[in-house]
């Protein structure tokens, strides 16, 4: 299923970015409302916000369904990895699932609320625990692990 869900992964990443951008928009609007002196400006902005929020919610509904499908696949991968490599921590398993879903280390870091450097350290620890070369392509290894019959030469 992961092979067939490239579009879903891309949509998920865009969905998360869209949520972040919308939250930033709301924060700026609220800051502007706090500093606005003209009651008409406050009333106009307040009147606009509920419609903008509802429009975002409608878009999020479809994307949430895709997110749930990706999470199901990631959960299966995490269980299998944990069975074969019990030394991997929950955080390392989560990093593996994000990388396998096609997210960059920076995107994984944002989702985990950690620095990119923290994700890089987790990746190095994962490689060590899996017995991989420090420069091995972890994403490719996860692909091969998930699809052993489709290993690339």
Describe what you observe in this structure.
- This protein has 153 residues and is mainly α.
- It has one domain (3-150).
- Helix content is 78%, strand content 0%.
- It has helices at residues 6-35, 39-84, 90-100, 105-112, 116-130, 138-146.
- Helix 1 (6-35) runs antiparallel to helix 2 (39-84), helix 2 (39-84) packs across helix 3 and helix 3 (90-100) crosses helix 5.
- The chain is elongated.
The gist of it:
The chain is mainly α and 153 residues long. 78% of the residues lie in helices and 0% in strands.
List keywords for this structure.
78% helix; mainly alpha; 153 residues
If you compute it from the alpha carbons, what radius of gyration comes out, rounded to the nearest whole angstrom?
Answer: 20 Å
Count the domains: 1
Give the overall average pLDDT. 82
H/I helix tally: 6
Poorly predicted runs of 5 or more residues: none
Number of strand elements? 0
List strands and helices in order, with pairings.
Elements: H1 6-35, H2 39-84, H3 90-100, H4 105-112, H5 116-130, H6 138-146
Helix pairs in contact: 1-2, 2-3, 3-5, 4-5
């Amino acid at each position: 299923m992961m092979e067939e869900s490239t579009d879903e992964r891309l949509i998920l990443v865009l969905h998360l970015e869209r949520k972040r951008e919308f939250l930033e928009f709301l924060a700026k609007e609220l800051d502007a409302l706090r500093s606005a002196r003209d009651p008409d400006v406050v009333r106009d902005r307040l009147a606009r916000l509920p419609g903008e929020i509802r429009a975002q919610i409608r878009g999020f509904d479809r994307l949430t369904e895709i997110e749930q499908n990706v999470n199901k696949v990631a959960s299966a991968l995490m269980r299998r990895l944990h069975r074969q490599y019990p030394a991997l921590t929950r955080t390392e398993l989560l990093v593996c699932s994000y990388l396998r879903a096609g997210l960059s280390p920076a995107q994984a870091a944002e989702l985990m609320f950690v620095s990119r450097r923290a994700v890089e350290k987790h990746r190095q620890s994962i490689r060590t625990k899996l017995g991989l070369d420090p420069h091995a392509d972890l994403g490719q290894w996860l692909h091969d692990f998930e699809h052993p019959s489709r290993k690339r030469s």
